[in-house]
Sequence to fold (470 residues):
Amino acid sequence: MTCREFKYTAASLTLWDLSRAQDQEILSHADICQKCGAWLQEQRMLGSAMQTLRTRTAGRQAGPSVERALLRMFRQVPFEATQSVAAHRFTPIALGLSRFFEVGAYVAVAAAIVIGLFLGVRLLEQRAKTTPVQSYSAPVTTAPTQVNTASTQDRTGKAIAATTHEHSRSSRKLAVGARSTSNSAKRLNTASASQTSDDPEYVALMFCDPLSCSSDTQVVRMELPAAGATSERDAQPQIADVVVGYDGVVRAVRIVN
Amino acid sequence: METRSGSPLEVTLLTDLTDEQLLAQALAGDEEAFTALYRRRQGPVFRFALHMSGSSHVAEEVTQDVFVFLLQRGHDFDPSRGALGAYLFGVARNYVRRALERNYSEAILHSPADDEAQSLVTEDDPADGIARHQASTALWKAVLSLPEHYREVVVLCDLQELSYAQAAEALGCAIGTIRSRLHRAHDMLGKKLQHSVAAAPGRVSRATARWAS
Fold:
């Protein structure tokens, strides 16, 4: 038997078995190996001391005063009441804590949902407020492009191109300007309607107070319906530059062709 | 001591009833059942507390607390989770822990052997009796100096002679844990005991060695 086997076998025996140590293999190994022999001796001594201690204290019990005190207490306990209530009243502390945390978790989740809803509503409100501004500002960059494209088209001689100064002059009476449409369009992107009204080519369609009309505007080139905008002699669709304010109201209009 | 239930023919001795039946009757207000249960179970509870604390004063206090607890919260006991004996050891363990936190130094300083110093010196060979006494006293002191989780398994398995399964039930852990803790505790106790025997006076030391072998 090796020391390892000795330890393994010894570990499976109780202290009482070890102190008797009937196993010949264990005993023979303990005789050979000094270390294991010392360990066995140690455990035997421990087993014997444990046996003595057990015998010494075997007869010990609580004094009669404890029993008397308990019986006195027993007679004072209202059993009918405790029986019905005890199961509910005496909950372990850990259970009580877990219930507290459970309720706390529900409260936290409910609070998170309420806060989320509140923030969501606020966000939607803000978005609703900002959306028109964004929708107006977005075309700001495209409007001049349209106009520029139109001016380019004008240079290439296409039909829609009517943004040059000469075209403007030859256009209808609404178009009374000396500057090119592209330039005025660019200016009108950031200019006010009052500025638009200063532009002789544009005809102001509404009277604005300086505060509201000084806000951002954009110029949109659009094709007017042929029937409404033209006479019988001219079936060609009319192109107009429309100055639209941040509130979607048309501030001024200029007929291009 | 006997109880009658229903017809006069149904006579059952209280000593024949199980712990659980006695508890149920006690909680229904039967004083005799409670007394029977107390007398049956107070000894192991008291000795467990005594071995754990080293103080009979603490042990009595713990015993009383355990049975008061049983009176008040006995309805919480669930027989399907284990025997009442193991349940009582579990309760006693908590009360011992509280008592030791309260007056640890008092319990340790009051040597367990001092209560009954001469009780074992009745052997034919007085030296042998003294040696036994000294060895067991040294062992008890060594047990008291063990960390609590080792002390519990030594007290339950070696001194209360509970099986590993019963100890595991009382302490609420696995049998393997009990086994490994016990093995480790024995190693520690063996070393402590060797030291104390080596430190004993020559004649007693020789007698201890002879008695142990």
Notes: The radius of gyration of chain A is 51 Å. Residues 3-57 of chain A form one domain.
